[in-house]
Amino acid sequence: MKKIFLTLILILGLSCNCFADELDNIQLPMRDYDGIELPAGTFIPIINTQEISTEYCPEGYKVKFISTNDLYLHETNVIPKGTEFYGYIEKINEPVVGTHASMKIKITKLILSDTFEIPIKGYIYTSNDNLIGGGLTAPAEYVKVPHFQQRFQGRFWSHRGPTLQIRPGGKRQMGEHTKVNVGEDGLIILTAPAYITHTLTN
To answer: What would you measure as the largest C-alpha separation in the chain, in angstroms?
Structure first.
């Protein structure tokens, strides 16, 4: 009886190995999904989740933003509202006389609501080469400049002479630190194509 039992076990074991080899050689059907490419220059509306300041945030400081709208491409919602974006302060310029502080914030990845992570390359957008802040400070002094005008003539009087105009002088005030407030709206601009290989379904 034991010999018959051992023989059955050996036969079953060999047949299982042959079946496993056959499975290894079978090509299983793959899902037809190539992903979606978001081109460089795409704008993504976001909201800031924390206060970011050149006064106390160093270069490399990690930041987080959340998308405020669904972003569609070819009728597909590729970046749903509520997607989280992560990055860091890439560069800080301290305030100096005549110029306020400025900073550049680089975005490196997005995380969908199901925790799927996709690397991206982008910046918080501004019209000044994505530099946040960096504006000119107010003049530190004003000078009076005579301005000669044409003759004023009224019914009973006539006058020709200079009038004084107040203009900014050559000196400017010391710059101040730049801050991005919590809840402030902004835009991310992609600086390289982003390959969205995963989308959420309802």
So the answer is: 140
